Amino acid sequence: MSDLANLAPQTLLDWEAYRRELDRIAEHRYSSVEYELIRRAFDYAADIHREQLRFSGDPYLTHPIAVSLTAAAYTLDAPTIAAALIHDTVEDGGSLADVRKRFGDEVAQLVDGVTKVDKIHYHGAERAAESMRRMFFAVAEDVRVIILKLVDRLHNMQTLWAHPAPEKRLRIATETLDIYAPIADRLGMGELKGELEDLAFAYVHPDEHRWVSREIRKRIPEREDHLKKVQPLLERALHDEGIPVVAISARAKRFYSAWKKVSRYDMNWDHVLDLVALRVVVPEIEHCYAALGAIHALWPPMPGRIKDYIALPKPNGYQSLHTTVFCEGGNATEFQIRTETMQRESEYGITAHWLWSETEKPKTGTRLVGKKFAWVNQLKAWQEKIGAAQSSEDYLESLKIDFFRDRIFVLTPKGDVVDLPENATPVDFAYHIHSEIGDHAVGAKVNSKMVSLDHPLSSGDMVEMLTQKNKRPSAEWLAFAKTALARSQIRHALKSAAPVESPVRATEFEITVDDRVGILKDISGAIARFRINIETASAERRASVYSTILIRFQQKRPDQIEKIKTQIKKIRGVRSIVERVKPAKS
Ligand code: MN
Description:
The chain is α+β, with helices and mostly antiparallel strands. The protein is built from 21 helices and 14 strands. The strands form 4 sheets. It has a 5-stranded mixed sheet with strand order 1-2-5-4-3. A 4-stranded antiparallel sheet has the order 12-13-11-14, with helices on one face. Strands 9-8-10 form a 3-stranded antiparallel sheet. The chain starts with a helix and ends with a strand. The site of manganese (II) ion has 4 residues, from loops.
């Protein structure tokens, strides 16, 4: 991607120059038939945009050229490169019908998708949410559309300085920060995400951006000096252990992500330990763990800072080992250890899997399969569930909360990973597993310890739900449930709950039983199955063999009493039941 940062599209307005650049970036990937398609798209765009200028004063064609070349760097296929070249023509005097006639259905669909997404203006309004929906449909249908939109936005951000209207600059940058960068993140496209964030940061929080860039520039030389001393020690240790190394490099934290971090630590830079980290790339996973061991043998690790994202990848697929160790003089240093494949995936995300080889070309229209990006496919289902019941504004909020906030992952007792937003609770977890489990939740165990239903979960927690059939969600849950899914299910359950009838009678059972462990629980369970709330239950040892259990409850349906008694009599150890009806307590 570094190639593209220095790209000057205005020098590529001529087809031959453009083609040379495309060949360089795409490594001669396209066939002659595909070049023919791309060439026609180039000419068409040049024709439609010929009179137009960008705000920067450059010919408009520089924009589709930049977008198509970035798309090529992400190994997108020829129809997408063609669509990138003509993605703004429908807006600027062309027509979709014309595009379809000239370039066929596939290119036309891609252009149509991009055109629709272009209509989206995010400022939290009702209309925006409606468009957001369409955008996410487009994602689920064909992820190439969304990647085109992301690289389109990248170039628009790179040239945003030229936009004359300050309020528009702010709106576009805010949208980039709140919507586009998180989408890039969710697709695992770390480079693109970081680039979008840093570009937007300067417009959305200009003062903070200035401060952070000054602070980081001030601190980086000292950190780099330190790493220059650490790196040879590391290389020697890895060599002595026979661990092969592909590359070791220092990598400075990006401005926006550094700012988010320092904000969490009261603006104290001493707590940002990964301002510059050493990245160790090795050939195989086993070498990652071996390298981690070698590092810990050299320097003591900081407790709680070892993160194994190889065994438990982040929800967007990110894999790596992280550790922070105390180097000479107590200087805390972060290491990130990963394989070449993981390195590539962390930069290119979903598109890392599209690399074309000579023998194997990806199918066009690349559908998303596999667990890793399953969330994309879930969008539709969630959207239908959540979106149908709520206003668009709620929906937009739910998108932001569910898809764009920091995620945690917790485990089911079977070890399945469940992806939840930060500070999610057992109630969110329960509804994520199944609405039945959410609706009947009474408690939860986290790492085998009982916790309350509003207990905030952390990554790596193992969560087990306890349920009871006659339990129903409480309105209080809405105060702490984090996911839109849980919130909408709770609201639904509260709405559909039958209005509570006033209790008509208080009933007391005096039950004589053979004493045995668990008999009280069996009896209360039998009563609870009739959706009756027990007021008091007590056991009293009368003789050496028999005990008496007194159970008092309010019940609304006298016709059920006999059924309840029959059920209780079936329980092992129950000798007899005496029923007393008492006046209802007020
Ligand atoms: Mn555009």
